[in-house]
Amino acid sequence: MLKNITLSADENLIKKAREKAMREKTTLNESFRQWLKQFVNSSISNDDYHKLIENLKYAKSGRKFSRSEMNES
To answer: What pTM did the predictor assign?
Structure first.
């Protein structure tokens, strides 16, 4: 069963979101429902994050990088 909710957002943001949905041949409602499903199902906890960092500690870059090197795209 679908239930209606009311959200508030910036008017320009809503306009851009509707335009994007139209380009993707969908509706803003459907896009939001998809986002809501992803939001609910992506429950990465702090513990999961810390475990990932712990598992990646073995990786070494071999040297320290400068700030400008790290910001290069």
So the answer is: 0.55
